[in-house]
Design goal:
With about 350 residues, the chain is an alpha/beta fold. It has a single domain, classed as TIM Barrel. The chain has helices at about 5-15, 20-30, 35-50, 90-105, 120-140, 150-160, 175-180, 185-195, 215-225, 255-265, 280, 285-290, 310-320; strands at about 55-65, 110-115, 140-145, 165, 200-205, 205-210, 230-235, 270-275, 295-300, 355. Strands 1, 2, 3, 4, 5, 6, 7, 8, 9 and 10 form a ten-stranded mixed sheet that branches. Helix 1 (about 5-15) packs across helix 2 (about 20-30), helix 4 (about 90-105) packs across helix 5 and helix 6 packs across helix 8. The longest helix has 18 residues, at about 120-140. It is globular, with a radius of gyration of 19 Å. The termini are far apart. It binds iron/sulfur cluster. Iron/sulfur cluster binds near residues 69, 74, 77, 117 and 343.
């Protein structure tokens, strides 16, 4: 019987077909001693489907805290006693300052994130005004993450030129009810579809390390693949004090790298972006995340946690010989129907306007 990694290599690189669930389960059953071989395959698949470029994106947490929802990982929920900053939608000047900073570090995409269940009319108008101003002043591509949308709201965002909409599933269907009770997994799937139907690219991912099993992590990747997202942001849980998950242990670096590689095999043509938690979980092995199949980074700070310097990330990419993508990927990597952004575990301080998911 052929080795599971040989089967996967033939399927993805010769037959150019998606892996089946049993094929992925066979790979997941391998000892972590075989992780270098899994990583090597994930890197080959990433290069074959996506090329060597790495897409950089910065976030702004444009409205922080006081969210009525109860996502268990999130320090922005009004239900938990956390030290997150709470503020209404930032002034346009602050948004523009962050957009200019995004451009200055070489990122091509700027994501406006707000902590809400979904946008009310006044907020939506402010976001749309900000989208126009960022386009006019910086030329950056703009993404938004505004929670649950109606079709009419999605159409207005698309008409304003929002290229990509982030709405994470956060976890697989089976785990989601343990993570959130104020809205459903199907609510999230519906908004993901509404965003795509309106003509925006879908950015849809989540958080791993919230207590799910390896099998549930694989479920999650297949559920994301079924939505054929352009981008999957992969957050690694960095437990936030005061949230229900504050005592959840963090993944080991090897578990995280295994997950990144498996996501690449299941979503071969997707922008797979390392988001919140990479510094804490991967530590010295961050560069390995980009060799294990990831081809996108959030640069700067995350929504509620501080990231490392963008210059350090650019030096890492230089050392790896991976060029920065000059523009978003047009969904060009999505092939064979395979092809999803987790809201970060937390929001930026007002004094640090650029943040990451
Ligand atoms: S993840 Fe989003 S919807 Fe959930 S509590 Fe945090 S800000 Fe609100």
């Amino acid at each position: 019987m052929s080795h599971p990694l040989a089967v996967a290599e033939a399927a993805l690189l010769e037959e150019r077909r998606p892996l089946t669930r049993p094929e992925v389960d066979a790979i997941a059953a391998l000892s972590l001693d075989e992780l270098p071989d899994l990583i090597a395959l994930a890197h080959k698949v990433r290069l074959a489907y996506c090329g060597p470029e790495v897409e950089l994106e910065s976030l702004i947490n444009a409205k922080s805290g006081a969210c009525p929802e109860d996502c268990a990982f999130c320090s922005q929920s009004v239900r938990y006693a956390t030290d997150v900053d709470v503020y209404a939608f930032l002034d346009l000047d602050e948004v523009l300052e962050a957009a200019h900073a995004t451009k200055a570090v070489g990122a091509t995409q700027f994501c406006i994130v707000v902590a809400v269940r979904g946008p009310e009319e006044r907020l939506l108008r402010k976001v749309i005004d900000a989208v126009h101003a960022v386009h006019d002043q910086t030329g950056l591509e703009v993404a938004c993450s505004l929670g649950i949308l109606t079709p009419e709201q999605a159409t207005r965002l698309a008409d304003a030129g929002v290229r990509r909409y982030n709405h994470n599933l956060e976890a697989c269907r089976e785990v989601f009810p343990q993570i959130c009770t104020t809205h459903t997994y199907d609510d999230r799937v519906e908004t993901a579809r509404i965003a795509m139907d309106a003509g925006m690219e879908l950015c849809c991912g989540g958080i791993i390390g919230m207590g799910e099993t390896l099998s549930q992590r694989i479920d999650f990747a297949f559920e994301l693949a079924a939505l054929a997202p352009c981008e999957v942001p992969l957050n690694l849980l960095d437990p936030r004090p005061g949230t229900p998950l504050e005592d959840q242990g963090v993944l080991s670096p090897r578990e995280a790298l295994q997950a990144i590689a498996l996501f690449r095999l299941i979503l071969p043509g997707t922008w797979l972006r390392l988001a919140g938690g990479r510094e804490r979980v991967l530590g010295e092995l961050q560069a390995m995340g980009l060799v294990a199949g990831a081809n996108g980074l959030i640069v700067g700070n995350y929504l509620t946690t501080t990231g490392r310097s963008p210059d350090d990330d650019k030096a890492m990419l230089d050392a790896l010989g991976m060029p920065v993508a000059e523009g978003p990927g047009e969904g060009r990597f999505v092939v064979d129907g395979t092809g999803a952004h987790a809201r970060p575990a937390q929001a930026p301080k007002r004094s640090i306007p650029v943040t990451s998911r």
